[in-house]
Design brief:
Blueprint: H1 11-17, H2 23-56, H3 61-64, H4 70-120, H5 123-127, H6 131-173, H7 178-182, H8 184-222, H9 224-229, H10 233-285, H11 291-332, E1 354-361, E2 378-385, E3 390-395, H12 401-408, E4 416-421, E5 424-425, H13 431-436, E6 438-441, H14 452-456, H15 465-474, H16 478-482, H17 501-515, E7 519-523, H18 531-544, E8 549-553, E9 565-570, E10 573-578, H19 580-586, H20 589-598
Parallel strand pairs: 3-8, 3-9, 6-7, 7-8
Antiparallel strand pairs: 1-2, 1-4, 4-5, 9-10
Helix pairs in contact: 1-11, 2-4, 2-6, 2-11, 4-6, 4-11, 6-8, 6-11, 8-10, 8-11, 10-11, 15-17, 19-20
């Protein structure tokens, strides 16, 4: 059951929801934008007044206010012009700063919300999507939104301010000419919305193609060593070329439609201008308009109609932003398939008893067999681990060992059965509490770009330097760390690429030790270490596993030979169990594996 309800609101309305906490800033930005545009229009009106002064002299509009001297009238106009330009510049500075800061704030909160939601999604979501695609949403799409908010909101407000102010002036000053100037506006609006509908799917496709190329580049950069080792640089370049060309062609389709909009609008603007020029001139000739008013109308008709020409650019920016917002909101609307419970299991009192009762599990992408049921990775599996016990699990690749661990961590949800810790169903536990009491060392060790000390301290972010060093000593990592160029301050590189596989695994073990969980899971934790290091780790395990439930998954049987109980797994079932000596005495699967690894007999393939 999803813990998130998918919103049916328009993406723009949902975006505006992020601005509700900043209403004073929004309204200030709106007011300053409108005032800036009004003062920007004022010089056009002042030009009309200036023409009126020169032509009408003592009968001008200003003269009627009591200033009959022409020089005085022009002086008044000059002062008004200076004031208007000063206020226009002031309000532009204020609104530009307000909008851009607001864009940064909304961008920040939207990215944080998106990333927070992304972290709550189940592991399978990430396995089915590329890192590059998700990065494209978190970075490119949210940045596209920021670019629109920086200027797009102000441009829309300015557009409506100009149309309302100039349109009203036309109707008041020259009602007989106004219809001819306004005639193209309905056609322009209709064309704008028609183009918007056509542009929307094209820009959606552009954003998808951007995600594909981002995915390709992220994948190749992370696998650069493999590319070099197989000398497939040319092949990968051709794949990047294909993705980039697809992005270019997708943009080309959008550009072809977007570019056609401006010339069409321009043609309609010219029609309105010619109509004003002609019919306004006729009105002057028939003494229905003054020369000053006619000059004013011819001048401001462009201010009325040209904003509609820029409407194409505004719509273009809007559609690009909406395409990005839809992708971001689509991620936010992804249901959380594995919601946490509401019970806590503090590590200070957790015993670490694990009960697995008749669980059945299959991955979503497993095909169906002839009977219509899924191939199960685990089927009716049960296991009881007493608190503080050390157990080992062995089995062939694909037998379900690592899947069992991921179910215990609730990376996936069982289809049937239950798993309990200290008698509490893990579905009832808060996910943070559940995972806090489990230390997991995976075969695929991930180290963050940072220092050795920072990666070990990831197990306990409040750990002291002495605690970090002690954890490294227990993991047999202290000596090799001291030999690194900067010791514990050595940068390990992205994914720890500056370290060997064995060094990475020992740091991962130290990180889990520092976490000090009641349950420790070692999933092939010694697979990448040499025999000497493995022996050293084995010596430390006797201390590490004291008073701690330990589940060790291993191919190397020597790693688990001293476990309290060893379970042999085949096709999602436990087929053998017992101590090392008991399993050898049974002379079945485990015994044969031990003989092969100890060199007593050669493997069958030999």
């Amino acid at each position: 059951m999803s813990s998130l309800r998918v919103s049916k609101k328009h993406p723009l309305l949902r975006l505006l929801g992020y601005a509700k906490n900043y209403r004073p800033q929004v309204w200030s930005a709106v007011a300053c934008t409108i005032l800036n545009q009004i003062f920007d229009l004022a010089p056009s009106y002042l030009i009309g007044v200036a023409v009126d002064v020169v032509v009408e002299k003592e009968n001008s509009l200003i003269a009627r206010a009591g200033i009959t001297d022409i020089v005085g009238q022009l002086a008044i106009l000059s002062l008004l012009t200076l004031l208007v330009w000063s206020l226009e510049s002031l309000f532009e500075f204020i609104y530009d700063r307000l909008w851009r800061n607001l864009a940064q704030t909304i961008q920040h909160e939207l990215r944080l919300d998106t990333y927070t939601h992304l972290q709550q999604l189940e592991l399978s979501y990430f396995e089915e999507r590329s890192t590059g695609e998700l990065l494209s949403i978190l970075n490119d799409d949210i940045n596209q939104l920021e670019r629109f908010l920086n200027s797009g909101a102000a441009e829309i407000l300015q557009f409506f301010t100009v149309v309302l102010a100039v349109g009203t002036s036309f109707i008041l000053v020259a009602p007989s000419v106004a219809p001819f100037a306004i005639l193209p506006i309905p056609l322009i609006l209709w064309g704008s919305f028609a183009f918007q509908k056509l542009l929307a799917p094209r820009y959606t496709d552009v954003r998808e193609k951007a995600g594909f190329i981002s995915s390709r580049l992220a994948n190749n950069l992370s696998g650069i060593a493999t590319i070099k080792s197989f000398t497939t640089e040319d092949y990968e370049r051709s794949r990047v070329l294909d993705e980039s060309d697809a992005y270019r062609r997708s943009n080309k389709k959008a550009i072809a439609l977007s570019a056609a909009f401006f010339p069409l609008i321009r043609f309609m603007v010219v029609i309105g201008f010619i109509a004003t020029l002609f019919f306004g001139g006729v009105a002057v000739a028939n003494d229905r308009l003054t020369v000053g008013t006619y000059g004013f109308l011819v001048f401001i008709v462009q201010l009325l109609l040209w904003p509609f020409a820029t409407l194409s650019q505004i719509m273009d920016e809007y559609q690009r932003a909406m395409a990005s917002i839809r992708r971001v909101m689509g991620l936010l609307d992804t249901p959380i398939a594995i919601p946490g419970g509401d019970r806590a299991l503090p590590t200070t009192v957790a015993r670490g008893e694990v009960q697995i009762d008749n669980i059945t599990f299959a991955y979503n992408d497993y095909v169906q067999n002839g009977s219509g049921s899924r191939y199960n990775v685990l089927t009716n599996l049960s296991l009881h681990i007493l608190a503080g016990k050390n157990i080992g699990i062995v089995g062939a690749t694909g037998s379900g060992k690592s899947t069992l661990v991921k179910l215990l961590l609730r990376f996936y949800e069982v289809q049937s059965g239950s798993i309990t810790i200290d008698g509490i169903d893990i579905r009832e536990l808060q996910l943070k509490e559940l995972r806090r009491c489990i230390g997991w060392v995976s075969q695929d060790v991930f180290l963050f770009h940072g220092t050795v000390a920072q990666n070990i301290a990831y197990g306990d972010l409040a750990a002291t330097e002495e605690e970090v060093i002690q954890a490294a000593k227990l993991a047999e990592a202290h000596e090799f760390i001291l030999e690194l160029p900067q010791g514990y301050d050595t940068i390990v590189g992205e994914r720890g690429q500056k370290l060997s596989g064995g060094q990475r695994q020992r740091i991962a073990i130290a990180r889990a030790i520092l976490k000090d969980p009641p349950i420790l899971i070692l999933d092939e934790a010694t697979s990448a270490v040499d025999n000497e290091t493995e022996a050293a780790i084995q010596r430390s395990l006797s201390k590490i596993t004291q008073n701690r439930t330990t589940i060790a998954i291993a191919h190397r049987l020597s790693t688990i030979r001293h476990a309290d109980c060893i379970y042999v797994m085949e096709q999602g079932q436990f087929v053998e169990s017992g101590t090392h000596e008991q399993l050898l005495a049974q002379n079945k699967t485990y015994a044969k594996l031990w003989q092969v690894q100890s060199g007593e007999i050669l493997p069958a393939s030999a």
